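Regression test case RT-17, inverse folding.

Input:
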């Protein structure tokens, strides 16, 4: 968290040279602004620069510069405003999606987390589950990385390759997005879970016709790679030349 003036809700943040003011977004059908930290649309209140279009979610703006996260207890994680990976991006160890936005990173281990993933609650109540609140699980010690189980909320498959919520009493688990429905990356978790489940089923029953969903994982990864290339070309002013070369 940066320097905050509580009298007028003004924030001086390291990421921006101008003061940011806490503002309520107007209602209506106007397209919401995107947070410069996590790259997701904003709703409700925002920190906004009066001089330019710089916007931050209050939750993103108030993160500390360093934190110790239970998913990586050996080292502190440091807030990075730009990806430090070799290709200007990183792989989030929670949702397993490529990130281009701010992250919390352990430099010695190359361990990165999206800001929305860092903000997931350690425990949360799940609808239609009678036991105590589910706890956030970073791996499945019973079956190891990459196994599948059925979500206690939606009954769809989820992969333990990504974080999930689990009940310590009955062993049931659930998608992150089913337990925390307002989580910005909920669809990212679910899409990869569905795609990997289809691929696993196809490998288990090779004689069965492949469902259309079995191609989603490869398509998702391809889309991420294409998006990364376009971003890099656009940053260097080379995107028009690349488009012309493809047409030729």
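Golden output:
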């Amino acid at each position: 968290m940066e320097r905050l003036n509580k009298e007028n809700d003004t924030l001086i943040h390291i990421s921006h040279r101008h003061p940011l003011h806490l503002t309520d977004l107007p209602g209506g059908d106007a397209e919401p602004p995107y947070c410069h930290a996590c790259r997701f649309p904003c709703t409700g209140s925002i920190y906004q620069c009066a001089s330019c279009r710089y916007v931050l979610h209050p939750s993103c703006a108030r993160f500390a510069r360093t934190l110790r996260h239970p998913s990586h207890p050996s080292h502190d994680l440091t807030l990075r405003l730009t990806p430090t990976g070799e290709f200007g991006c990183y792989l989030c160890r929670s949702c397993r999606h490529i990130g281009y936005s701010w992250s919390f990173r352990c430099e010695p281990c190359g361990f990165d987390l999206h800001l929305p993933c860092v903000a997931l609650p350690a425990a949360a109540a799940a609808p239609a589950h009678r036991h105590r609140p589910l706890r956030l699980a970073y791996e499945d010690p019973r079956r190891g990385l990459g196994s599948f189980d059925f979500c206690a909320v939606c009954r769809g498959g989820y992969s333990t390759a990504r974080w999930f919520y689990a009940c310590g009493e009955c062993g049931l688990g659930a998608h992150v997005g089913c337990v925390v429905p307002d989580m910005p990356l909920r669809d990212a978790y679910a899409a990869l879970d569905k795609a990997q489940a289809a691929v696993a089923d196809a490998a288990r029953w090779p004689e069965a016709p492949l469902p259309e969903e079995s191609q989603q994982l490869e398509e998702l990864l391809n889309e991420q790679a294409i998006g990364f290339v376009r971003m890099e070309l656009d940053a260097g002013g080379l995107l028009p030349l690349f488009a012309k070369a493809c047409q030729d």
